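Backbone shape codes:
===
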Amino acid sequence: MKTHMFEQQGLGLAPFRCVAIIDSGPGNKKSCDHCGAGIRYAFEVVSRDGKSFNVGSDCALKTDDSGLRATVNRHLNALRRTQRYQRAVKPLLALLAQEDVRTRLAALPNPRGEHGRGNTALDFCTQVANDDRLFERVYKEAVAIARKAAL
């Protein structure tokens, strides 16, 4: 049986599990405990014997450990989804920050009618801006409504 690369490095005993992702922020880099490279997103990994260490996604994905790779990929996909949402929601938040737009939206009915939560277009747009799962489905509609109210 092949020895795990993290085990060879003395980082602990296999199996390993990823327990968290740590964002050190822009310009602040941690270093990978396996290869020493600077990493912004550190994956906290725990070994069977309880040792905890941080590795970058490149090192985690190079292992032959399919469970660890799958967990790291889930974390990366969630991170990417959050980053996409944060970029996409900015125009809607900018519109909702304008008091005149909020006033006009509050006077309009919820475009989803009885199916929507809240009674006004302001309720709808605010809910969409604050719910990343809902945002992915209806953000274009919410942005269009808010832009129309801004005119």
